[in-house]
Design goal:
heterodimer, A: MetI-like fold, B: Rossmann fold, CBS-domain, 4-stranded antiparallel sheet, about 35% helix
Chain lengths: ~240, ~350
């Protein structure tokens, strides 16, 4: 079969559109595991990052974290957590190992962007706020967080796109998602299946990139948008 | 109103105190300027009063209350705070910035809005600016907002840390003159840190000169300090031109203003020439009623009606609230060796080098 015949055969097969190995199912698996991973990472990381930013500590920690994040191969974490979790009694084909790896992947950009974002709020703005009599909590909620929201959302965008791309590896430890098509496509020499999987992962990542990019631009408070003079959130990210 | 007692600050990692057992009394309604060489502890002293910097030891009493014993945010809400970097909230409008403390204090919206309107007038801003964001304003306008924000809840005490240090000299002179007048009418208790001796003399009812380590070298009225420096340090710090610095004590309006060679545009060529002769100058200032139009060269007078001449504007104009020290600089830099005094376009008179010299020697 030529490539086009393979592609047509895959796209016209009834299993492609309904059932456990269909595009809707695989897409859904991919989306939910990505969303859950980013959410859990946010819950774990943001409070600590916000606090470290507020007390203006931890910029060293922030860059260490991002470097470790870059150095650790996601595939390695995935393999290790899969082995450990299976030893602990998790079933093969359950999503836990994939989740652990994706959370570990999402955490560094969220952490670093939040710490850096809050610290990049002009020291004088914070001092003036304290001098006016804002409490620590009020400084955080009405000055530091609003002014650093674009950077925090940028962290969310970077994390989400990386997670969507990497969730593909889940198929290697017997989990679903769109990676299934790529891995199975290779195994069965079915180029149509492989291409559909790759294109869908790419599209999903682009949608997340564009959507969260728009959110990032929209989240800049009025008066402190890009291009305005003296916008503290404009400083470089990491 | 403010009492500092044996106030000491030793920053961690440093063995020498930044401020050493400083004791000072600041009376109600008084503006005290804190001045000294850089690193002398003047800003540290100021920032201990609202506990932006916590003292290592000592007592601070503000308005009869022990500042160390009340919750720090409560203390700060009763003290206006203005810093050189201004620190306006970039994501809030001018109106919201000014209303910061009133809304922390839980005022209702109409009361806040009324107060903001009132303050805009007080500090000389346009009402149009209320809906704008800080980045849309010039440095001078931003600092007016900074002052308005500090005054918002009508605190009895104002702390100002080199508030006019970051704006250009012309704007700085204007802001100083306006603040001087504002202080006369509001009667706040002000602690004002500066490194500009002329500013300290012009604005301070009393001046506190600090030596390195926050040691009080002299604390007295500026005229007293200029006349009798207490030590070699104070003398050196004030510099060799104490006579000239006395000029900072006086406002332009205090010196004798002359009318100068100024005529109304309706005047005929005869009168114009007579006025120039009487003043022994070869230029003529033109007025339209009270309003200053500019000046024309003497050679052009007589060829046509004064009204048809296109007057040139004066390079240097002063406000009657500016200090004589500012006036001296202005006169020296103007080619005519005179400065015209104009308040909001209204001509007040003319000041020359001799009139200023008279004030120095008096």
């Amino acid at each position: 079969m030529t490539f086009w015949e393979e592609l047509e055969a895959f796209l016209t097969a009834p299993d492609t559109w309904s059932g456990p190995d269909s595009i809707p199912t695989r897409l859904w698996e991919h989306v939910w595991i990505s969303v859950v991973a980013v959410l859990v990472a946010s819950i774990l990381v943001l409070p600590l990052a916000v606090w470290l930013g507020h007390i203006r500590r931890g910029s060293g920690v922030a860059s260490t974290v991002v470097n470790i994040g870059r150095a650790l191969p996601s595939f390695g974490i995935l393999a290790i957590s899969f082995l450990v979790l299976v030893q602990m009694g998790a079933g093969v084909g359950e999503p836990w190992a994939v989740l652990v790896a994706l959370i570990a992947l999402a955490a560094p950009p969220l952490f670093t962007n939040t710490v850096t974002g809050i610290q990049s709020v002009e020291a004088w703005t914070v001092e003036a706020a304290r001098g006016m009599g804002l409490t620590g909590k009020e400084v955080l909620s009405s000055v530091e967080i609003p002014l650093s929201t674009p950077l925090i959302v940028e962290g969310l965008r970077i994390a989400t796109v990386q997670v969507i791309a990497t969730a593909t590896l889940g198929a290697l430890v017997a989990w679903g998602g769109l990676g299934r098509y790529i891995v199975d496509g290779f195994a069965r020499q079915d180029m149509g299946r492989l291409i559909v999987g790759a294109v869908l992962v790419g599209l999903l990542a682009i949608v997340a990139e564009l959507g969260l990019g728009a959110l990032q631009r929209g989240s800049a408070p009025k008066g402190a948008r890009r291009g305005d003079v003296g916008n503290p959130a404009q400083r470089s990210t990491v | 109103m403010i009492r500092l007692e044996n106030l000491r600050k030793v920053f961690s990692g440093s063995t020498r105190p930044a401020v050493t057992d400083l004791t000072m009394d600041i009376a109600r309604g008084e503006c005290v300027t804190l001045i000294g060489p850089s690193g002398c502890g003047k800003t540290t002293t100021l920032k201990m009063i609202n506990r932006i910097i916590e003292p290592t030891s000592g007592q601070i009493t503000v308005d009869g209350r022990n500042a160390m014993a009340i919750p720090v945010h409560e203390l700060r809400r009763s003290i206006g705070y203005v810093i050189q970097q201004i620190g306006l909230f970039p994501h809030r409008t001018i109106a919201q910035n000014i209303g910061t403390v009133p809304s922390l204090l839980g005022w209702d919206d109409t009361r806040i809005a009324d107060r903001v309107e009132e303050l805009v007038e007080t500090v000389g801003l346009d009402h149009e600016m209320l809906g704008r964001y800080p980045s849309e304003l010039s440095g001078g306008q931003q600092q007016r907002v900074g002052v308005a924000r500090a005054l918002a809840a009508d605190p009895p005490v104002l702390l100002m840390d080199e508030p006019f240090g970051a704006v250009d000299p012309i704007v700085r002179n204007r802001l100083q003159a306006e603040f001087h007048e504002l202080q006369d009418s509001l009667g706040k208790t002000v602690v004002f840190v500066t490194h500009d001796v002329d500013e300290a003399i012009f604005l301070g009812n009393r001046m506190a000169i600090l030596e390195m380590g926050g040691i009080l070298a002299q604390y007295d009225a500026p005229e007293k300090i200029l006349a009798e420096p207490a030590s070699m340090f104070v003398e050196r710090f004030l510099g060799g031109e104490r006579g000239l610095k006395r000029l900072s004590l006086l406002a332009v309006i205090d010196a004798g203003l002359e009318r100068g060679p100024f005529v109304d545009v309706t005047a005929g060529p005869e009168e114009a020439r007579r006025v120039m002769e009487a003043n022994a100058v070869d230029w003529l200032g033109l007025l339209d009623g009270d309003r200053l139009l500019g000046w024309v060269d003497g050679s052009r007078v007589g060829s046509s009606q004064l009204r048809d001449l296109e007057p040139r504007s004066f390079l240097v104009t002063l406000d009657s609230r500016d200090s004589l020290r500012t006036a001296l600089d202005a006169v020296v830099t103007s080619h005519a060796r005179v400065a015209v005094v104009v308040d909001d376009g209204i001509y007040r008179g003319m000041l020359d080098l001799e009139a200023i010299a008279g004030e120095v020697t008096e």
